[in-house]
Amino acid sequence: MTDKNTRGRASKVDLLPPNIKTQLAMMLRDKHLSQAQILEEINDLIRDCGLDDSYQLSRTGLNRYASRMEQMASKIRNAREVAEIWTKQFGEAPQSDIGKLLMEMVKNLAFETSLGMSENGQAEPKDLALLSSAIQRLEQAESLSFKREQAIRQETIKRAAEAVEEVGKEQGVSLEDVQKMVKAVYGIE
Questions:
Q1: What 3-state class would DSSP assign to 34?
Q2: Which of 1, 22, 74, 167 sees the fewest Cβ atoms within 10 Å?
Q3: How many angstroms separate the CA atoms of 165 and 144, rounded?
Q4: Is it the case that residue 48 has pLDDT exceeding 60?
């Protein structure tokens, strides 16, 4: 009787040398090759590297690996599309806005996780500690992001005010008038 429990055990693909795994990944991305062709070429590479037959990939093993890779690639493509849509919507400074959106999404996930843990009544101390740590890090990251955004705004305002002063001097406007304009527009003296 064979042991069907393979959970946690590395797949044959995971055990391949890095150069063969890289070749496999490249072949899977190339949509011109069939899985049968890929299987044949990879198994030839395995033999050419002097690995024994236990490293040979099966059709189902390759198919499982290809499916996993396609799922990951699909998630990456979807994330890029969503980021592109949000970036176009946010305009000039998308990084901070996307960062805020991601923070809110993670907060929501943490909230849903904590609700699920309390509803199940299966809140393990380790899980609570991990969730608490994640929330603390999220709050710290949000605070740092806010401080960074404030510093950038202040620097931008300062540079703009300096530019206004410079143009005012070049145009012969009195320093007092320039300072009034800077205060009115930027709120600084």
A1: coil
A2: 1
A3: 31
A4: yes
User: Is-contact 14 38, C-beta < 8 A?
Assistant: no
Query: Which amino acid, 10?
Result: A
Q: Are 182 and 169 in contact (CB under 8 A)?
A: no
By C-alpha distance, which of 72, 135, 127 is closest to 103?
135
pTM of the model: 0.44
Please list the alpha-helical segments (H only) found in the chain.
12-15, 18-29, 35-48, 59-90, 94-120, 125-170, 175-186
Distance CA 74, CA 63 (A): 16
Q: Report pLDDT digits (tens) over 90-104.
A: 554 545 566 666 677
CA–CA separation, 38 and 32 (whole Å): 10
Contact by Cβ (8 Å): 145, 98: no
How many angstroms separate the Cα of 55 from the Cα of each of 8, 41, 61, 67? Answer: 18, 13, 11, 20
